[in-house]
Amino acid sequence: TKRIGILTSGGDCAGLNAVLRAVVLHATSNKGWEVIGLHQGTAGLMARPVSAERLDPYTMTTVLLRQGGTVLGTTNRGDPFAFPMADGHSVDRSEEVIEGYRQLGLDAVIGIGGDGSFKILRRLAQQGGLNLVGIPKTIDNDLGLTEISVGHDTAVQVATEALDRLQPTAASHDRVMVLEVMGRDAGHIALSAGIAGGADVILIPEISYRMERVAAKIDDIKRQGRNFALVVVAEAVPTESGEPVTRIHVGGKATYGGIGHYVSERLAAMTGAETRVTVLGHLQRGGPPDARDRIIAQAFGVHAVDLIEAGKFDRMVAWQNRRVIDVSILEATEHSQVVDPKGTLVHTARGLGISFGD
Ligand code: F6P
Predict the structure, then answer these.
(1) Residue 133 bridge partners (DSSP)
(2) Burial class (CB in 10 A: 0-12, 13-18, 19+), 68
(3) Ligand 1 — pocket residues by CB below 6 A?
(4) pLDDT tens digits for range 213-252
(5) Which residues form the active site (predicted)?
(6) Which residues are annotated binding-site positions?
(7) What is the reported pTM?
(8) Whose CA is nearest to atom 8 of ligand 1?
């Protein structure tokens, strides 16, 4: 029998609880192991006493399958190798995390994370001899070697629904609606939602744009007799001159959103159109996972348990060609996957007459 730990790390997304439930069901009911849920990512292992709970199958009701967020809590990107202290300094607390793993007597740990989390978890695993298996989650879908990560599909669904709701009000008021969506470094959410939601313009960091071209597209639409338009902008898109504006500053504090306002203002000035901007923000992360995320989450959870049984560590479960396989965690983090400007979806969008402003 085994005792395994599981933790969620980095930004939350829809489907994390579905992963937890799948791991617990397969590990306990089928294998007879014990599963320990670690609180707040690596912070639970750093705490004394260690902050963790035993996860039993009877507590893993189907409610969890549908529930957004993570019942274990997640790290607030607190890196144990450079842990921020109250006085502003940072200290290396990695040994405390490793000691926490030992205190719990864990045989292995499943980390649900994105590339930032995996880099930290791998370092911990190597330093302390921890047996690590990774499950990819990121709404941004920029992890390498897996076609899809948990949370992305729901985020695309939410952004698509936002366009469904913006279109009627845009049409009623003859407005250009700008929707800013998430994606720290990649335009996957913007591209997929833009196609699914019938956008006229999609701006992503992978394709450089000129406002002149975007304005020309809006003017074109007007000439054809349509008085409204939908523009999707990924948060990571810089201004036309290349300045990053992911965060706007209000009262000296960085708050969410930025580029959507820039595009909206510029478009209004250049075309005379009335524009409005919506920053979708964290709505893309919370909420119940859609069907595809639930399926991927549970397939990953079951497979991760099988990897531990097979003694395959330092591996990440991945979705490729309609199946779950396992890949090197290191390689997955090294080959982050942004939008391919020559890929199928960009080609599809261009075929539909969607402009990238290039
Ligand atoms: O990586 C996921 C993500 O949601 C990005 O899309 C976004 O840039 C970032 O996290 C937001 O981070 P925070 O929740 O810390 O504001």
Answers:
(1) 110, 315
(2) middle
(3) 11, 138-140, 182-184, 235, 256, 285
(4) 999 999 999 999 999 999 999 999 999 988 877 665 666 6
(5) 140 (proton acceptor)
(6) 11, 77-78, 114-117, 138-140, 175, 182-184, 235, 276, 282-285
(7) 0.95
(8) 184
